[in-house]
Fold this sequence. Notes:
Strand content: 15-25%
Order of helices and strands: EEEHEHEHHEHHH
Structural class: alpha/beta
Amino acid sequence: MYYVGVDIAKNSHVASIMDNDGVVHLEALKFENNHTGFSKFIDSISIFPKEKLLIGLESTAHYGEVFTQFIFNLGFRVAIVNPLQTSAIRKAGIRKTKNDKIDSLVISKSLILNGWTLLEERDITTIALKGLAKARRNLISQRTRAKIQLVAYVDQLFPELESFLKGNLHIKTVYELLLKYPTAK
């Protein structure tokens, strides 16, 4: 079995491959967080039989989502490694160094020690849904801030409008009115 540890970052990722005996077969392959980089990664691991590969990465918010979906959809086995386990492995070493190269090797070691959860189709769907839910929350938050800002501007430029509308500035009629007549004049 070959264990591919991938250290995920915003702009680029680093991968290393170890076998069951801890022999390093690929060390610190750096690739970009885009389709070109993913293709470079796939080319580098293509010398290993797909069924003997386990690709692992730490749970890293949204930075690894596209990569995870990409390799999962190509039929690779993908595992999420608990960051607490990789931290414990890193601390067990003599040097307490932390960098992308070392982290990818630590993730590979975590895979060897069975400290992972294999992703399934429903997990990939859940990852996508979480991303969409977060985007929706962000949009609602932006909308709320915009509405508060609109009330503040209307209070300054056209204070009579709010009392005329009984405090309800956020209806389509008011928005159309303000587009056509942006000031009290």
